[in-house]
Specification:
The protein is an alpha/beta fold. It has helices at 19-28, 47-56, 75-83, 111-130, 181-189, 208-218, 239-250, 268-281, 319-337, 350-353, and strands spanning 8-13, 35-37, 40-45, 62-71, 97-104, 143-150, 153-159, 198-201, 261-265, 287-291, 305-309, 341-347, 362-368, 371-380. It has a seven-stranded mixed β-sheet with strand order 2-3-1-4-7-6-5. Helix 2 (47-56) crosses helix 7 and helix 5 crosses helix 6. The structure holds S-adenosylmethionine.
Length: 391
Protein backbone atom coordinates (compact mmCIF):
# COMPACT_ATOMS: atom_id res chain seq x y z
CA UNK A 1 0.00 0.00 0.00
CA UNK A 2 1.23 3.47 -0.85
CA UNK A 3 -0.21 6.92 -0.07
CA UNK A 4 -2.02 6.66 -3.42
CA UNK A 5 -4.29 3.87 -2.17
CA UNK A 6 -4.25 4.46 1.62
CA UNK A 7 -6.99 6.82 2.80
CA UNK A 8 -5.91 9.49 5.24
CA UNK A 9 -6.75 13.10 6.02
CA UNK A 10 -6.04 15.68 3.34
CA UNK A 11 -5.44 19.27 4.44
CA UNK A 12 -5.93 21.92 1.76
CA UNK A 13 -4.35 25.22 2.77
CA UNK A 14 -5.27 28.61 1.34
CA UNK A 15 -5.19 32.31 2.20
CA UNK A 16 -7.90 33.07 4.80
CA UNK A 17 -9.56 35.63 2.47
CA UNK A 18 -10.18 33.05 -0.24
CA UNK A 19 -11.27 30.10 1.92
CA UNK A 20 -14.94 30.21 0.95
CA UNK A 21 -13.95 30.12 -2.75
CA UNK A 22 -11.50 27.24 -2.21
CA UNK A 23 -14.25 25.36 -0.35
CA UNK A 24 -16.57 25.80 -3.33
CA UNK A 25 -13.86 24.54 -5.69
CA UNK A 26 -13.43 21.44 -3.47
CA UNK A 27 -17.14 20.64 -3.13
CA UNK A 28 -17.69 21.11 -6.89
CA UNK A 29 -15.21 18.25 -7.35
CA UNK A 30 -17.49 16.03 -5.25
CA UNK A 31 -15.54 15.99 -1.97
CA UNK A 32 -17.17 16.45 1.45
CA UNK A 33 -15.42 18.81 3.83
CA UNK A 34 -14.79 17.41 7.33
CA UNK A 35 -13.95 20.71 9.01
CA UNK A 36 -11.88 23.83 8.51
CA UNK A 37 -9.73 26.46 10.22
CA UNK A 38 -9.23 30.01 8.82
CA UNK A 39 -6.57 28.80 6.41
CA UNK A 40 -7.07 25.04 6.11
CA UNK A 41 -9.80 22.68 4.91
CA UNK A 42 -9.77 19.01 5.90
CA UNK A 43 -11.27 16.06 4.04
CA UNK A 44 -10.83 12.29 3.78
CA UNK A 45 -8.88 11.01 0.82
CA UNK A 46 -5.89 9.25 -0.70
CA UNK A 47 -2.92 10.80 -2.49
CA UNK A 48 -4.83 9.96 -5.71
CA UNK A 49 -7.59 12.33 -4.53
CA UNK A 50 -4.83 14.80 -3.67
CA UNK A 51 -3.50 14.49 -7.22
CA UNK A 52 -6.96 15.36 -8.56
CA UNK A 53 -7.18 18.36 -6.22
CA UNK A 54 -3.74 19.56 -7.41
CA UNK A 55 -5.00 19.26 -10.99
CA UNK A 56 -8.13 21.39 -10.52
CA UNK A 57 -7.77 23.78 -7.57
CA UNK A 58 -7.07 27.36 -8.66
CA UNK A 59 -7.19 29.23 -5.34
CA UNK A 60 -5.47 26.82 -2.90
CA UNK A 61 -1.88 27.02 -1.60
CA UNK A 62 -1.06 23.40 -0.74
CA UNK A 63 -2.58 19.93 -0.76
CA UNK A 64 -1.16 18.00 2.21
CA UNK A 65 -1.50 14.26 2.90
CA UNK A 66 -1.37 13.38 6.59
CA UNK A 67 1.34 10.82 7.39
CA UNK A 68 1.12 10.75 11.19
CA UNK A 69 0.00 12.64 14.26
CA UNK A 70 1.88 12.58 17.56
CA UNK A 71 2.66 14.25 20.80
CA UNK A 72 6.01 16.00 21.35
CA UNK A 73 6.80 18.45 24.11
CA UNK A 74 10.32 19.38 23.02
CA UNK A 75 12.68 18.92 20.01
CA UNK A 76 14.10 15.62 21.32
CA UNK A 77 10.63 14.12 21.61
CA UNK A 78 9.88 15.44 18.12
CA UNK A 79 12.98 13.63 16.83
CA UNK A 80 11.96 10.36 18.55
CA UNK A 81 8.43 10.52 17.13
CA UNK A 82 9.50 11.30 13.56
CA UNK A 83 12.24 8.65 13.67
CA UNK A 84 9.67 5.89 14.32
CA UNK A 85 7.51 6.65 11.27
CA UNK A 86 7.84 4.11 8.40
CA UNK A 87 9.23 6.58 5.84
CA UNK A 88 10.05 3.72 3.51
CA UNK A 89 6.34 3.52 2.66
CA UNK A 90 6.42 7.00 1.16
CA UNK A 91 9.84 7.50 -0.47
CA UNK A 92 13.21 5.87 -0.86
CA UNK A 93 16.80 6.45 0.23
CA UNK A 94 17.54 7.75 -3.29
CA UNK A 95 15.01 10.57 -2.97
CA UNK A 96 15.86 14.17 -2.08
CA UNK A 97 13.53 15.78 0.46
CA UNK A 98 12.95 19.17 2.07
CA UNK A 99 10.90 20.23 5.11
CA UNK A 100 8.65 23.22 5.68
CA UNK A 101 6.85 23.93 8.91
CA UNK A 102 4.41 25.87 11.01
CA UNK A 103 5.66 25.91 14.64
CA UNK A 104 4.23 27.31 17.83
CA UNK A 105 6.11 25.65 20.68
CA UNK A 106 7.45 27.37 23.80
CA UNK A 107 10.54 25.15 24.05
CA UNK A 108 12.16 26.54 20.89
CA UNK A 109 12.81 30.02 19.56
CA UNK A 110 13.86 29.26 16.00
CA UNK A 111 11.60 27.08 13.86
CA UNK A 112 14.66 26.07 11.78
CA UNK A 113 15.83 24.06 14.80
CA UNK A 114 12.59 22.05 14.77
CA UNK A 115 12.95 21.47 11.03
CA UNK A 116 16.52 20.26 11.61
CA UNK A 117 15.42 17.85 14.36
CA UNK A 118 12.65 16.54 12.14
CA UNK A 119 15.08 16.11 9.24
CA UNK A 120 17.59 14.31 11.52
CA UNK A 121 14.85 11.90 12.64
CA UNK A 122 14.08 10.94 9.03
CA UNK A 123 17.71 10.80 7.88
CA UNK A 124 18.61 8.59 10.88
CA UNK A 125 15.64 6.32 10.09
CA UNK A 126 17.09 5.66 6.60
CA UNK A 127 20.70 5.44 7.90
CA UNK A 128 19.68 2.74 10.38
CA UNK A 129 18.09 0.71 7.55
CA UNK A 130 20.66 1.19 4.74
CA UNK A 131 23.79 2.60 6.34
CA UNK A 132 23.58 5.79 4.22
CA UNK A 133 21.60 9.01 4.23
CA UNK A 134 19.16 10.49 1.73
CA UNK A 135 19.90 13.96 0.33
CA UNK A 136 18.10 16.91 1.86
CA UNK A 137 18.01 20.66 1.26
CA UNK A 138 15.77 23.65 0.56
CA UNK A 139 14.59 22.76 -3.00
CA UNK A 140 10.83 22.28 -3.32
CA UNK A 141 10.84 20.43 -6.64
CA UNK A 142 11.10 16.88 -5.23
CA UNK A 143 9.71 15.40 -1.99
CA UNK A 144 8.38 18.10 0.31
CA UNK A 145 7.27 17.41 3.89
CA UNK A 146 5.29 19.76 6.07
CA UNK A 147 5.54 19.74 9.87
CA UNK A 148 2.76 21.30 11.92
CA UNK A 149 3.75 21.55 15.58
CA UNK A 150 1.60 23.51 18.03
CA UNK A 151 2.64 23.12 21.69
CA UNK A 152 2.45 19.32 22.26
CA UNK A 153 0.54 18.40 19.10
CA UNK A 154 2.51 17.45 16.03
CA UNK A 155 1.30 16.42 12.59
CA UNK A 156 3.52 15.57 9.66
CA UNK A 157 2.31 15.70 6.06
CA UNK A 158 3.53 14.94 2.56
CA UNK A 159 3.11 18.11 0.51
CA UNK A 160 1.53 16.74 -2.67
CA UNK A 161 1.81 20.13 -4.36
CA UNK A 162 5.58 20.52 -3.89
CA UNK A 163 5.95 24.09 -5.15
CA UNK A 164 2.87 25.94 -3.82
CA UNK A 165 -0.30 25.73 -5.92
CA UNK A 166 -0.44 29.54 -5.80
CA UNK A 167 1.96 29.33 -8.78
CA UNK A 168 0.06 28.20 -11.84
CA UNK A 169 3.09 27.56 -13.98
CA UNK A 170 2.75 30.12 -16.79
CA UNK A 171 4.50 33.20 -15.45
CA UNK A 172 7.70 33.45 -17.46
CA UNK A 173 7.78 37.27 -17.20
CA UNK A 174 6.49 39.00 -14.05
CA UNK A 175 6.76 42.61 -15.37
CA UNK A 176 5.82 45.00 -12.46
CA UNK A 177 3.97 44.14 -9.23
CA UNK A 178 2.21 41.04 -10.59
CA UNK A 179 -0.68 39.52 -8.70
CA UNK A 180 -0.27 36.07 -7.16
CA UNK A 181 -1.94 33.70 -9.66
CA UNK A 182 -4.20 32.01 -7.08
CA UNK A 183 -5.30 35.44 -5.84
CA UNK A 184 -6.18 36.54 -9.38
CA UNK A 185 -8.26 33.34 -9.76
CA UNK A 186 -10.06 34.15 -6.48
CA UNK A 187 -10.62 37.78 -7.47
CA UNK A 188 -12.26 36.72 -10.73
CA UNK A 189 -14.48 34.21 -8.94
CA UNK A 190 -15.53 37.02 -6.56
CA UNK A 191 -16.81 39.17 -9.42
CA UNK A 192 -20.20 38.80 -11.06
CA UNK A 193 -18.58 37.65 -14.32
CA UNK A 194 -20.62 34.76 -15.78
CA UNK A 195 -17.74 33.46 -17.99
CA UNK A 196 -19.93 33.96 -21.04
CA UNK A 197 -19.71 37.74 -21.44
CA UNK A 198 -16.96 40.29 -22.03
CA UNK A 199 -13.97 40.45 -19.69
CA UNK A 200 -12.15 43.73 -20.16
CA UNK A 201 -8.84 44.16 -18.35
CA UNK A 202 -7.14 47.51 -18.94
CA UNK A 203 -3.84 47.95 -16.96
CA UNK A 204 -3.28 44.20 -17.41
CA UNK A 205 0.47 44.27 -16.57
CA UNK A 206 1.86 40.75 -16.98
CA UNK A 207 -1.68 39.55 -17.79
CA UNK A 208 -2.48 37.53 -14.66
CA UNK A 209 -6.18 38.53 -14.44
CA UNK A 210 -6.81 38.11 -18.18
CA UNK A 211 -4.98 34.75 -18.25
CA UNK A 212 -6.86 33.45 -15.20
CA UNK A 213 -10.15 34.60 -16.79
CA UNK A 214 -9.24 32.68 -19.96
CA UNK A 215 -8.26 29.58 -17.97
CA UNK A 216 -11.47 29.69 -15.96
CA UNK A 217 -13.83 30.20 -18.88
CA UNK A 218 -12.08 27.66 -21.12
CA UNK A 219 -11.89 25.07 -18.32
CA UNK A 220 -8.13 24.64 -18.72
CA UNK A 221 -6.56 23.68 -15.38
CA UNK A 222 -3.22 24.46 -13.77
CA UNK A 223 -2.45 20.77 -13.90
CA UNK A 224 -2.37 21.08 -17.69
CA UNK A 225 0.31 23.77 -17.43
CA UNK A 226 2.54 22.80 -14.50
CA UNK A 227 5.00 20.02 -15.22
CA UNK A 228 6.05 19.20 -11.66
CA UNK A 229 4.17 18.44 -8.45
CA UNK A 230 5.35 16.91 -5.16
CA UNK A 231 3.22 13.76 -5.60
CA UNK A 232 5.18 12.82 -8.75
CA UNK A 233 8.21 11.93 -6.56
CA UNK A 234 6.41 9.66 -4.09
CA UNK A 235 6.57 5.89 -3.95
CA UNK A 236 3.55 4.39 -5.73
CA UNK A 237 3.10 7.28 -8.20
CA UNK A 238 1.92 5.93 -11.55
CA UNK A 239 2.27 8.50 -14.33
CA UNK A 240 -0.52 6.81 -16.34
CA UNK A 241 -3.00 7.63 -13.52
CA UNK A 242 -2.03 11.29 -13.65
CA UNK A 243 -2.40 11.36 -17.45
CA UNK A 244 -5.81 9.68 -17.11
CA UNK A 245 -6.94 12.43 -14.71
CA UNK A 246 -5.63 15.08 -17.11
CA UNK A 247 -7.43 13.43 -20.03
CA UNK A 248 -10.66 13.38 -18.01
CA UNK A 249 -10.28 17.13 -17.39
CA UNK A 250 -9.69 17.73 -21.13
CA UNK A 251 -13.29 16.66 -21.82
CA UNK A 252 -14.52 19.89 -20.16
CA UNK A 253 -12.23 22.24 -22.05
CA UNK A 254 -13.78 24.78 -24.42
CA UNK A 255 -11.41 25.53 -27.28
CA UNK A 256 -13.34 28.71 -28.04
CA UNK A 257 -15.20 31.00 -25.67
CA UNK A 258 -18.23 33.07 -26.74
CA UNK A 259 -16.57 36.45 -26.15
CA UNK A 260 -12.97 37.61 -26.40
CA UNK A 261 -11.09 38.70 -23.32
CA UNK A 262 -9.57 42.16 -23.84
CA UNK A 263 -6.27 42.94 -22.11
CA UNK A 264 -4.36 46.18 -22.51
CA UNK A 265 -1.64 48.23 -20.84
CA UNK A 266 0.07 51.53 -21.53
CA UNK A 267 3.51 49.84 -21.43
CA UNK A 268 4.60 47.84 -24.46
CA UNK A 269 6.92 45.69 -22.30
CA UNK A 270 3.93 44.69 -20.16
CA UNK A 271 2.02 43.48 -23.22
CA UNK A 272 5.09 41.58 -24.49
CA UNK A 273 5.32 39.84 -21.09
CA UNK A 274 1.55 39.20 -20.93
CA UNK A 275 1.53 37.65 -24.42
CA UNK A 276 4.37 35.29 -23.55
CA UNK A 277 2.72 34.30 -20.27
CA UNK A 278 -0.60 33.70 -22.05
CA UNK A 279 1.16 31.57 -24.65
CA UNK A 280 2.78 29.47 -21.95
CA UNK A 281 -0.69 29.04 -20.35
CA UNK A 282 -2.04 27.98 -23.76
CA UNK A 283 -4.74 30.68 -23.78
CA UNK A 284 -3.15 33.36 -26.01
CA UNK A 285 -5.77 32.64 -28.71
CA UNK A 286 -8.55 33.65 -26.28
CA UNK A 287 -7.15 37.07 -25.38
CA UNK A 288 -6.95 40.20 -27.56
CA UNK A 289 -3.96 42.23 -26.40
CA UNK A 290 -3.27 45.89 -27.16
CA UNK A 291 -0.95 48.66 -26.03
CA UNK A 292 -3.07 51.61 -24.97
CA UNK A 293 -3.94 54.02 -22.21
CA UNK A 294 -6.93 52.71 -20.27
CA UNK A 295 -8.80 55.93 -21.06
CA UNK A 296 -8.72 55.01 -24.78
CA UNK A 297 -10.03 51.45 -24.32
CA UNK A 298 -13.15 50.88 -26.41
CA UNK A 299 -15.90 49.30 -24.31
CA UNK A 300 -18.44 47.80 -26.76
CA UNK A 301 -21.84 49.45 -26.31
CA UNK A 302 -24.96 47.38 -25.77
CA UNK A 303 -22.99 44.38 -24.51
CA UNK A 304 -22.53 43.00 -21.02
CA UNK A 305 -19.58 41.95 -18.93
CA UNK A 306 -17.04 43.15 -16.43
CA UNK A 307 -14.21 45.70 -16.53
CA UNK A 308 -11.46 44.81 -14.05
CA UNK A 309 -8.56 47.16 -13.26
CA UNK A 310 -5.59 46.67 -10.96
CA UNK A 311 -3.85 50.06 -10.87
CA UNK A 312 -0.61 50.71 -8.97
CA UNK A 313 -1.09 51.53 -5.26
CA UNK A 314 1.72 54.06 -4.86
CA UNK A 315 3.97 52.17 -2.46
CA UNK A 316 6.92 54.52 -3.07
CA UNK A 317 7.16 58.08 -1.79
CA UNK A 318 5.89 60.75 -4.15
CA UNK A 319 3.90 58.33 -6.33
CA UNK A 320 0.58 58.90 -4.61
CA UNK A 321 0.02 62.40 -5.91
CA UNK A 322 0.34 61.32 -9.54
CA UNK A 323 -1.89 58.32 -8.89
CA UNK A 324 -4.69 60.48 -7.46
CA UNK A 325 -5.31 61.72 -11.00
CA UNK A 326 -5.22 58.14 -12.37
CA UNK A 327 -7.83 56.98 -9.83
CA UNK A 328 -10.04 59.99 -10.60
CA UNK A 329 -9.73 59.16 -14.31
CA UNK A 330 -10.79 55.55 -13.59
CA UNK A 331 -14.02 56.96 -12.08
CA UNK A 332 -14.53 59.14 -15.19
CA UNK A 333 -13.82 56.16 -17.47
CA UNK A 334 -16.41 53.99 -15.68
CA UNK A 335 -18.96 56.79 -15.79
CA UNK A 336 -18.41 57.68 -19.45
CA UNK A 337 -17.80 54.26 -21.00
CA UNK A 338 -18.89 51.57 -18.57
CA UNK A 339 -22.65 51.77 -18.97
CA UNK A 340 -24.15 48.26 -18.95
CA UNK A 341 -21.08 46.70 -17.30
CA UNK A 342 -19.91 46.00 -13.76
CA UNK A 343 -16.63 47.72 -12.93
CA UNK A 344 -14.02 46.41 -10.48
CA UNK A 345 -10.89 48.01 -9.05
CA UNK A 346 -8.39 45.93 -7.09
CA UNK A 347 -6.19 48.18 -4.96
CA UNK A 348 -4.13 48.21 -1.80
CA UNK A 349 -4.64 51.91 -1.19
CA UNK A 350 -8.07 52.98 0.02
CA UNK A 351 -7.06 56.65 0.22
CA UNK A 352 -6.36 56.58 -3.49
CA UNK A 353 -9.55 54.58 -4.14
CA UNK A 354 -11.61 57.45 -2.72
CA UNK A 355 -10.54 59.50 -5.76
CA UNK A 356 -12.53 57.15 -8.04
CA UNK A 357 -15.42 59.11 -6.63
CA UNK A 358 -18.21 56.58 -7.36
CA UNK A 359 -20.35 54.68 -4.90
CA UNK A 360 -19.28 51.04 -4.49
CA UNK A 361 -21.88 48.29 -4.47
CA UNK A 362 -19.49 45.89 -2.69
CA UNK A 363 -16.02 45.89 -1.06
CA UNK A 364 -14.16 42.61 -0.63
CA UNK A 365 -10.94 42.20 1.38
CA UNK A 366 -7.92 40.27 0.04
CA UNK A 367 -4.21 40.23 0.81
CA UNK A 368 -1.67 40.54 -2.00
CA UNK A 369 1.63 39.44 -0.43
CA UNK A 370 1.26 41.21 2.94
CA UNK A 371 -0.69 44.21 1.75
CA UNK A 372 -4.34 44.42 2.68
CA UNK A 373 -6.25 45.13 -0.51
CA UNK A 374 -9.85 45.65 -1.57
CA UNK A 375 -11.76 44.52 -4.61
CA UNK A 376 -14.22 47.36 -5.17
CA UNK A 377 -17.34 46.73 -7.20
CA UNK A 378 -19.21 49.43 -9.14
CA UNK A 379 -22.53 48.59 -10.77
CA UNK A 380 -22.68 50.64 -13.95
CA UNK A 381 -25.88 49.12 -15.33
CA UNK A 382 -27.57 50.90 -18.22
CA UNK A 383 -30.15 53.36 -16.93
CA UNK A 384 -28.79 53.08 -13.40
CA UNK A 385 -27.61 56.37 -12.00
CA UNK A 386 -23.89 56.13 -11.32
CA UNK A 387 -23.60 57.94 -8.01
CA UNK A 388 -20.68 60.30 -7.50
CA UNK A 389 -19.52 60.44 -3.90
CA UNK A 390 -17.59 63.27 -2.26
CA UNK A 391 -13.83 62.70 -1.88
C1 LIG B 1 -0.18 46.88 -10.55
S1 LIG B 1 0.21 46.70 -12.23
C2 LIG B 1 -0.91 45.45 -12.78
C3 LIG B 1 -0.39 44.09 -12.44
C4 LIG B 1 -1.21 42.99 -13.05
N1 LIG B 1 -2.45 42.77 -12.37
C5 LIG B 1 -0.39 41.68 -13.08
O1 LIG B 1 -0.79 40.72 -12.41
O2 LIG B 1 0.67 41.67 -13.69
C6 LIG B 1 -0.48 48.15 -12.96
C7 LIG B 1 -0.28 48.27 -14.45
O3 LIG B 1 -0.98 49.44 -14.89
C8 LIG B 1 -0.29 49.95 -16.03
N2 LIG B 1 -0.71 51.36 -16.22
C9 LIG B 1 -0.38 52.44 -15.49
N3 LIG B 1 -0.99 53.54 -15.99
C10 LIG B 1 -1.72 53.15 -17.05
C11 LIG B 1 -2.60 53.81 -17.97
N4 LIG B 1 -2.81 55.13 -17.89
N5 LIG B 1 -3.22 53.06 -18.91
C12 LIG B 1 -3.00 51.72 -19.01
N6 LIG B 1 -2.17 51.04 -18.18
C13 LIG B 1 -1.54 51.73 -17.21
C14 LIG B 1 1.18 49.76 -15.67
O4 LIG B 1 1.98 49.75 -16.84
C15 LIG B 1 1.15 48.42 -14.93
O5 LIG B 1 1.44 47.37 -15.82
Amino acid sequence: MSAFDSPSTLLITCAPDVKSITEKEITRLGYSILDSTPSGIRLHGTATDGMRLCLYLRTASKVLYQVATGSAHNPDQLYQWVNKIEWNTFFTIQDYFSIESFIQNDTIRDSRFANQKCKDGIVDYFSALYGKRPNTGPEKDKIVLFLFWKQNDAVIYLDLSGEPLTKHGYRIHPWKAPMIESLAAAVIQSTQWDQNSLFINPMCGSGTLAIEAALLSSGKTNGHIRRNFGFMHLKGYVAAQWYALKDEALKYIRLRIPFPIYASDIAEEAITAAKENAKKAGVDHLIEFSVQDFKDVVVPRGKKGVIVLNPEYGERLGEEEKLMTTYKEIGDFFKKKGSGYIGYVFTGNMDLAKHIGLRTSKKMIFHNARIECRLLEYELYEGKKVVRVKE
